[in-house]
Design a protein that fits this description.
By secondary structure, the protein is α/β, with parallel strands linked by helices. It is built from 6 helices and 9 strands; from the N terminus they run E-E-E-E-H-E-H-E-H-E-H-E-H-E-H. It has 2 domains: 34 residues, no CATH class; 162 residues, SPOUT methyltransferase, trefoil knot domain (Alpha/beta knot, 3-Layer(aba) Sandwich). Strand 2 and strand 3 form a beta hairpin.
């Protein structure tokens, strides 16, 4: 099988994953390596005034969480933390594979920032970490909960907790609330874990983009 490859002298667009886009030229092309020459900066995007941080429990079927990573990067996410909780069925995750999926999605969607993907830890360990900005925990409750859109302050950092299949336990919810996480709903529909994570990401991004224009 013959693979189509770029030739020496081909023009490229290259990003450092930290907000800068360069014009570049391929100067060496080999099957196992390539050398490029950076020519000029095309775009230098400053950090956004807000950070979207989704902390999510990996699903039993890892392909579903891989899908979440891919689509969240396309929308625009800054940080993903992975944790195990009481109802978690998956206890191991290959961070290197998730990072590759993240980078591929970043390039495909022309994003200039590579999100940070944190190693898998327990829910208790995550709650001990210091996070900045607003804190929310999304779950299903017998009583109506306020929508994320109603509680979110635009142009500020936020961390949103998304539970596993089976949701958070009552003890986990109580512990998160004691740590300052506000209970919120993502709507009337009963969402799968990866869909809930994506809805949360999209909601935060849309609200922040809307308030940038107002």
């Amino acid at each position: 099988m013959k693979v189509l490859r770029l030739q020496v002298g081909s023009a490229l667009l290259v990003t450092n994953g930290q907000g800068t886009l360069f014009h570049a030229v391929l100067t060496e092309a080999h099957p196992k390596k390539a050398v490029i020459l950076l020519k000029e900066v095309v775009q230098d995007t400053p950090n956004e005034s807000f950070e979207i941080h989704i902390a999510i429990a990996p699903t039993k079927n890892i392909e579903r969480i891989e899908w979440f990573i891919e689509k969240a990067v396309e929308i625009g996410i800054h940080r993903v933390s992975l944790f195990t909780s009481f109802h978690s069925e998956r206890k191991q995750v290959r961070i290197d594979r998730l990072e590759k999926i993240s980078i591929a999605a970043m390039k495909q969607s022309m994003k200039l920032f590579a999100p940070k993907i944190e190693p898998l830890i327990t829910f208790d360990e995550f709650l001990k970490l210091s996070v900045h900005g607003q804190r929310f925990i999304a779950y299903i409750d017998e009583q109506p909960l306020p929508l994320l859109a109603q509680k979110l302050s635009p142009q500020s950092n936020c961390t949103i907790l998304i539970g596993p299949e089976g949701d958070f336990s009552k003890d986990e919810i109580a512990l998160a609330i004691a740590k300052g996480y506000q209970p919120i709903s993502l709507g009337k529909a009963r969402l799968r874990t990866e869909t809930a994570g994506l809805i949360a990401c999209a909601t935060v991004h849309f609200i922040n983009q809307y308030h940038e224009k107002v």
